[in-house]
Every structure is written in C-alpha cells, then in structure tokens.
C-alpha cells in the first residue's frame, strides 16, 4: 500500500453497516489504497449476505448509502444507481 512514507504492507478495510441495528452487513479487506472503486465490490457481498438472512433484493432499494468523500467516484455512483440506492 502506498503511503507518504513509501510502500508498506497493509490493507484497506471496508464495511457496510446497518445504522439502525448497528451490525456489519458486508465487509472486505483490499489492497486498494482508496475507496474509489469499493462499492461495486461490496454490493454483491451485501446482496448475498442479505439473501442468506432472509431479506429480498427489493429491500435494498429502500436503503440510503452514506459514505465519506473517499467513496465519491463515478464507479461508486454508477454502482449505487444500478441498485437504486440513494
């Protein structure tokens, strides 16, 4: 992972959390140094986990995604629009 101190071994952790119930619904660790392309990777994990616990795919369409400015990218916005996430 590139840092201001050079290359170090490390991972970028991602999590999608249900704010109402305060549980992690999807997570991953990647070697990407930023969050710009993580939503297209995380959403299939989220959908599978929701299916496993009995939610329908349509339940995801009611959701609102909130992330810091690191998630603001064309790829992430396209992934959210495809799933009809606010």
Overview features:
3 helices; globular; alpha+beta; 86 residues; two-stranded antiparallel sheet
Give structural notes.
- The protein has 86 residues and is an alpha+beta fold.
- The chain has one domain.
- The protein is built from three helices and four strands.
- The protein has helices at 39-52, 57-60, 74-82, and strands spanning 2-3, 6-7, 12-18, 23-30.
- It has a two-stranded antiparallel ribbon with strand order 1-2. It has a two-stranded antiparallel ribbon with strand order 3-4.
- The longest helix is centred in the middle third of the chain and has 14 residues, at 39-52.
- The mean pLDDT is 88.
Euclidean distance between termini CA atoms: 31 Å
**Helix content range:** 25-40%
Strand order across the largest sheet: 1-2
Q: What class do helices, strands and sheet pairing give?
A: alpha+beta
Q: Radius of gyration, rounded? A: 14 Å
> Mean pLDDT score, rounded?
88
Give the CA-based shape. globular
Low-confidence stretches: none
Hey, roughly how much beta strand do the residues contain?
15-25%
């Amino acid at each position: 992972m590139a840092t201001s101190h050079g290359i170090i071994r490390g991972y970028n952790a991602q999590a999608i959390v249900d704010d109402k119930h305060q549980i992690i619904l999807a997570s991953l660790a990647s070697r990407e140094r930023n969050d710009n392309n993580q939503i297209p990777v995380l959403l299939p994990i989220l959908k599978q986990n929701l299916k496993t616990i009995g939610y329908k795919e349509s339940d995801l369409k009611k959701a609102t995604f909130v992330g810091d400015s690191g998630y603001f990218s064309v790829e992430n916005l396209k992934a959210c629009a495809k799933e009809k996430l606010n």
